[in-house]
Design goal:
alpha+beta, 34% helix, globular
Length: 147
């Protein structure tokens, strides 16, 4: 059993902290699958205020330390960001984050553009591919859906 985890919606003033956390985890786990262009594009997107303003962000905390972030957009129907600190992988934190956003708004379906690293995680959560892997502006992803 892992550490006690507390999940809550993040406040507007916590967006920069969440963005920095996402970038740190991205560089460690996702970046090896991306070109320089893809890494730059991801960095630009998480620093784009219009993109960030569309998101509903939740954080997972152990004591006061941020250990996971999930963000949805389009009224909760699309997962835009989903990252858990590597030290806390396989401890159910991602599942708790996902269940929190699902419980907040029961949906007929939910979509995600899954990175190569995350495809197996989304399979475990019940998603399936709706298309083959694609690359746009250097970002590799597989469109997936939960129905």
């Amino acid at each position: 059993m892992g550490p006690a985890i507390f999940i809550r919606r993040l406040e507007q003033e916590e967006t920069a902290k969440a963005r920095d956390f996402v970038w740190k985890v991205f560089k460690e786990y996702e970046a090896p699958d991306y070109t320089e262009e893809g890494m730059e594009e991801f960095y630009k997107s998480i620093h784009d205020e219009s993109f960030l303003s569309q998101l509903c962000l939740y954080g997972a905390f152990t004591q006061k330390q941020l250990v996971g972030v999930i963000a949805t957009r389009s009224g909760g129907t699309h997962i835009a960001l989903f990252f858990v600190d590597g030290k806390y992988h396989r401890q159910g934190i991602g599942k708790q984050l996902f269940q929190t956003v699902r419980a907040g708004r029961p949906l007929d379906k939910m979509t995600v553009n899954a990175s190569p690293y995350a495809v197996p995680v989304y399979h475990k959560l019940g998603f399936h591919e709706v298309d083959t892997e694609q690359t746009v502006n250097g970002l590799r992803f597989t469109p997936m859906i939960l129905e």
